[in-house]
Every structure is written in structure tokens, then in C-alpha cells.
Amino acid sequence: MSQTTRSTTTIAVVGLGAWGTALAAHAARLGHVVRGWAHEREVVDEINTQHTNTPFLKDAELPHTIRASTDLAEIVGGAEVVLLVPPSKHFRAVTTKLAPFVGDEALVIVATKGIEESSLELMSQVLTESMPNVSPDRVAFLSGPSFAREVVQGLPTDVVAGSKSAIAAGRVQALLHTPMFRVYSSVDPIGVQVGGSIKNVVAIAAGACDALGLGTNARAALLTRALAETTRLGVALGGDPLTFLGLAGMGDLILTATGALSRNRELGQKVAEGVDPQIYLASVRSVAEGYWTSAAAYALAQKLDVDMPITEQVYHVLHKGRPLPEALQLLVTRGHKDELTGIRPG
Prior knowledge:
Elements: E1 10-14, H1 18-29, E2 33-37, H2 41-49, E3 67-69, H3 72-76, E4 81-84, H4 88-98, E5 107-110, H5 123-130, E6 139-143, H6 148-152, E7 157-162, H7 166-176, E8 181-186, H8 189-211, H9 216-236, H10 247-258, H11 263-272, H12 277-283, H13 290-304, H14 309-320, H15 324-332
Parallel strand pairs: 1-2, 1-4, 2-3, 4-5, 5-6, 7-8
Antiparallel strand pairs: 6-7
Helix pairs in contact: 4-5, 8-9, 8-10, 8-11, 8-13, 9-10, 13-14, 14-15
């Protein structure tokens, strides 16, 4: 659908961190009526008066038509589309609070990436509990290689909308697709979510790998084997293995693990330099989702008996204080494995 023929839609963006702000800006530039919710009063005031969001997207000018509020009912009530972008650790609380205001026909788009640590549930599973009146055929999950700063600058970006319903995925395409923000569709919401979650964990490992000076061979091996363990987890949860060769899998993994704008990659670099991860996280405003996802993904892999050695070591380094040299040694001294199955030959 071209921009000139696109119908105007009222979109409520819930969560105005970097990614939520970038999506709000993109939607507003397409002529949609965009209302945004943020917990932080200073963010709301700055967007409404200065049309910037310095705490999360410094130096990015936003469309003047975006209206922000700290009142969920005001933002969500009457919206035709609700775009959810809170951090994964707050996803349940926020969606539970806004559920009464979501219209019976509203399309819900989830752009949050992560696994809930307390329940080990994907955001789709959390949503069925926090917003039980929203059927899965009205929900789509947006993922793919997409740094917020480049999206808000209008640079070329490809993403994927995954939903159990091809109609819902198609609605996301009709809403947001442009030549510079291409939206592909998928009927594998599980795979899209798993790929978008685990890539943050892998990016921490990649940042540490580079900071330790292990070389580009090591980084390539790390990303390839990480994609294999991500796929194993996704398939165990019911995802399609081919999804992990696409934008939500390989695409997002490459970007987040190698791009200079990656918060998760930076966390790995800082840990390799000797910085305590808790101290680093306290020093930055934006969320490095991989920190919490590493704990949830490790526990979920244990529960499902899925071999995820890279995720396991990231978890132990970040949450149990395992020294990086020890984690590296445990990875490189693993026994012989078949490449595709990960099973010891013979």
C-alpha cells in the first residue's frame, strides 16, 4: 500500500523508550494519529513541548504530531492499534493495567523482545494472561534488525510481523510498510519472539569476544553456534526452524551482535573490561534486555532440556560472577559434536 493511499489510523504506542519512540515517529510520518504513553513524566513533557526524547534518543527530532501522556486510559482508549513496547520485565504489569481500555476490535502489536524471568513465558504467553479478551488472531509480534536511531533517521530497515493470523500480519504491513521500512509477514509468532529474545543474550557474548581480542574467526563461530542453539530452543517451543534464517533470527542476531549501537554488545564489552554488569546497567538509561533474558533463557533451556552452552555461560558470567576466562574455557573444551544436531557423534 503506498503512502498516498494509506488510511489514517489511531495508534497508541505504550512505552516511549528508544524503540517505542522510533516506531511512534515512523507511524506519525505516515500520517497516522499517534499517541504515546511513558512512565517518566520528563519524557512525556519533552516530547510534547520540545518534540525530542533526550533520555532515550538524544538529538533525534520527532514529528510534532505525536502526543504523549502518563495516563494509560487516555492513550489506549479508542485506539484502533495498540503498539506495546515496554521492557519485558514490566510487560505483564503494564499490559494488565491497560487491558480494560483496549477496544474489542483493536489490533495489538508487540514490539517488546524478551522472556519473562519469573514465569519463563514468551510475551505471547504473558499476553494471554494479562489481556485475556484479546484473541491471538488480533496480535502480531514485530521483530528484526532495527536499531531505533536508524529507524528514526529514516534509514533503510527490514522487519517482520509474526502472527498466528496472516490477516493480522497483513494489517501490520498495511499500517507500517514503506520502501525504507519494509515489513515482511510470518505465521510463526513463536519463532519470531525467540529469535528476537535470544539475540540480545548472544550480543553480550559477542561484545565480550571482541573486547577480549579473540578475533573475527571466533566471532563468526560464536554467532553461528548461537544461531543453532537459538533454533533448538525455538523448535522446542513450537517454532519453525526456517524462521531463524530470516529477519527475526539471523538478521537481528548479526545486527545486535556486531553493530556499534547495540546496548547488549556494549554490556559484553564492559564486562570484558572488568566492569560489574550491575554498575553498568545502573549507569545507562536504555535497557539491555539480554541481561534479564539470559537468566530466563537459561532456566527455560534447563526446563526443556535444550542444550544452550553460550546462553549458559552468559548467564553464569552476568548473574553468578563466573570469570570470563573460565566461561571461555568451558566453551572451547566441550566434547565433539555434530554440527546440525549438536549431539556427540557415535
